[in-house]
Design goal:
By secondary structure, the protein is of the alpha+beta class. It folds into two domains: about 190 residues, D-Maltodextrin-Binding Protein, domain 2; about 220 residues, D-Maltodextrin-Binding Protein, domain 2 (3-Layer(aba) Sandwich), CATH 3.40.190. It is built from 19 helices and ten strands. The chain has a five-stranded mixed sheet with strand order 2-1-3-10-6. Strands 8-7-9 form a three-stranded antiparallel sheet. It starts with a helix and ends with a helix.
């Protein structure tokens, strides 16, 4: 019987339970980026195969984090599926707040998930969220502007080269900024970017005894470099620019370079959305001269099920549908292989249809270059590249990122922000019992 039902379901990889279960309406919280919006447009395929309906709650990244965190910590029950990432998943899994995904169907092939993604979404070897897509960060740049500047992008450039190139590509009269980077407050927005920038200058959040390190010279060098470069070559108002704002600027031809999530590559090279689609090159995120760590992160937007949902079986069916090999094929059939969710499955990078996509190799190389177990030059007591995998981090880093954004907006100095960051972090860690 089971074999027959699976055959009827064909490539959907949904189990017999899908047909037997009563049709449900799932409420899913997600982030307002292009891949998630694309998924919403394809959910009729899921409904046709299962009978389940989907209601979407689509939120800006910072708001999403606040809403899902509040809901799961208070057992609010507003969502049947949450879009979460590598920071939340292991912590919430350890707390028993998420349903383990240890019984997904054989045809789903959980072993095909890239090891870096599976490890980052697991606790004690158990998967608690399935990656919709995975990412690192890399440089996306205008090949025509780089050539016009008389420069050639190395595959693995330094920050010093990036600053030189940004200045050479800046053309204020024609509204072209040499570089566009995140300055928006929020631990996962501008906070993530300045953390990996700090890593690439030899900085770290904490020493091995959980003492904050913002009073160390590496942080001052990193933050000063960032502010000076953006003042020279960045867009006005960059203090409020996050992923989506910079994506829009790049697609409009207003950025010479953009260093951000590898997932953006399909959007900046899509001629339907990007005015510079045929003029984009890719390179590894930069490092400071003499420092081995690069300014690239490791992340997955993933789907998890809050414990206590009354619709667990249907929620698992949706997760299998949305993060499957078959979903990748569905996107490819509708929008082309360049637009499939990247960075989650090994098989995608072995697929002949995907190997020649211009950003595929650089995406995988960037993901493999990130090391959450050893994110900094000097030893640290934490795991995580652009975040510190402790429950207190989100609150601390959001406050710190607000201080840094105030520097970007010209409201305080680098020294003032770093002093505040040091106090905010140490006080919070003392209150939490780390010191």
């Amino acid at each position: 019987m089971k074999t027959t039902v699976r055959a009827l379901l064909g490539a959907s990889a949904l189990t017999a339970v899908a047909l037997a279960a009563q049709a449900e309406t799932l409420t899913i919280a997600t982030v307002n980026n292009g891949d998630m919006i694309r998924m919403q447009g394809l959910t009729s395929d899921f409904t046709e195969k299962t009978g389940h309906e989907v209601e979407w709650v689509t939120l800006e990244e910072n708001v999403l984090r606040q809403r899902v965190t509040t809901d799961i910590t208070t057992k609010g029950g507003a969502f049947d599926i949450m879009t979460i990432g590598m920071y939340e998943t292991p912590i919430w899994g350890a707390n028993g707040w998420l349903v383990p995904l240890d019984d997904l169907s054989e045809s789903y092939d959980a072993d095909d998930i890239l090891p870096a993604m599976r490890a980052g979404l697991s606790h004690d070897g158990t998967l608690y969220a399935a990656p919709f897509y995975g990412e690192s960060s890399m440089i996306m740049y205008r090949t025509d502007l780089m050539e016009k500047a008389g420069l050639e992008m190395p595959e693995a450039p330094t920050w010093q080269f990036i600053r030189e190139a940004a200045a050479a590509m800046t053309d204020r009269e024609n509204d072209i900024n040499g570089i566009c980077l995140r300055g928006k407050a929020g631990w996962g927005e501008g906070g993530a970017f300045i953390t990996v920038t700090g890593n690439s200058f030899g900085a770290r959040w904490f020493d091995e005894d959980w003492n904050a390190q913002f009073d160390q010279p590496e942080w001052k060098e990193a933050l000063t470099f960032f502010v000076d470069m953006m003042s020279e070559s960045g867009p006005a108002g960059y203090a409020t620019n996050g992923f989506n704002e910079n994506l829009s600027l790049f697609q409009q031809g207003k950025c010479g370079m953009w260093i951000d999530a590898t997932v953006a590559a399909s959007f900046v090279t899509n001629p339907n959305d990007s005015t510079v689609a045929d003029k984009v090159g890719f390179a590894l995120a930069p490092n400071a001269e003499g420092v081995e760590k690069r300014a690239n992160w490791l992340w997955a937007w993933a789907l998890g099920i809050p414990a206590g949902t009354q619709k667990e079986a249907a929620a698992k069916q949706f997760i299998e549908w949305a993060t499957s090999k078959e979903y990748i094929e569905l996107v490819a059939a509708n929008e082309g292989w360049a637009n499939v969710p990247p960075g989650a499955r090994t098989s995608l990078y072995e697929n002949d249809n995907y190997k020649d996509i211009p950003f595929a190799k650089m995406t995988l190389d960037s993901i493999n270059a990130a090391d959450p177990q050893n994110p900094t030059v000097d030893p640290v007591p934490y795991v995580g590249v652009q975040f510190v995998a402790i429950p207190e981090f989100a609150g601390i880093a959001t406050e710190v990122s607000q201080e840094f954004s105030a520097v970007y907006a010209g409201q305080q100095s680098v020294d003032e922000a770093l002093a505040k960051a040091q106090d905010i972090t140490n006080e919070a860690m003392e209150a939490a019992g780390y010191r």
